Amino acid sequence: QLQASGGGLVQAGGSLRLSCAASGSSVRHYALGWFRQAPGKEREFVGIIFSGGTTYYADSVKGRFTISRDNAKNTVALEMNVLRPEDTSVYYCAGDRNYCIQSACYKWEPRVWGQGTQVTVSS
Predict the structure, then answer these.
(1) Neighbours of 69 (CB within 10 A)
(2) Spatial distance between the Cα atoms of 68 and 76, rounded to a whole number of angstroms
(3) 48 and 98 in contact (C-beta within 8 Å)?
């Protein structure tokens, strides 16, 4: 089970950090990722971190967002900087033992999901 937290309201250009805690079992060997979904839009891949720490990001957030994980604490985080109004979405953490490779991660379908947390960026 995954539990996301840390959403909120921030001004454009600001920063926000989301956290996601896993419970019930270790996700040490899981790929862990973040998705987002804005009203009226399809769910969008944001980024992923593999068990070894390698990351891959969507082009829309590359250079602004950073994913990290702490296997000892069973957590994954999403650090979001230089936020834009178009980043406004509900953000979801997710994980799976099945990985993806490079651009195929845009279509990654993890089986374990956390509840969403709202991020609103005002202009």
Answers:
(1) 23
(2) 6
(3) no
Position 26 pLDDT exceeds 90: no
- How many Cβ atoms are within 10 Å of 110's Cβ, its own excluded? 21
Q: How far is CA 52 from the centre of its chain?
A: 17
**Residue 25, Ramachandran bin (φ over 0: left; ψ between -120 and 50: alpha; else beta):** beta
For 27-66, letters b (16+ CB in 10 Å) and e give beebbbbbbbeeeeeeeebbbbbbeeeeebbbeebeeebb
| Average pLDDT estimate for 93-113 | 93
Residue 31's SS3 state is strand
- pLDDT higher than threshold 90 for residue 102: no
pLDDT for 14 equals: 98
Q: Which residues contact 14 (CB under 8 A, 6 or more apart)?
A: 83, 121
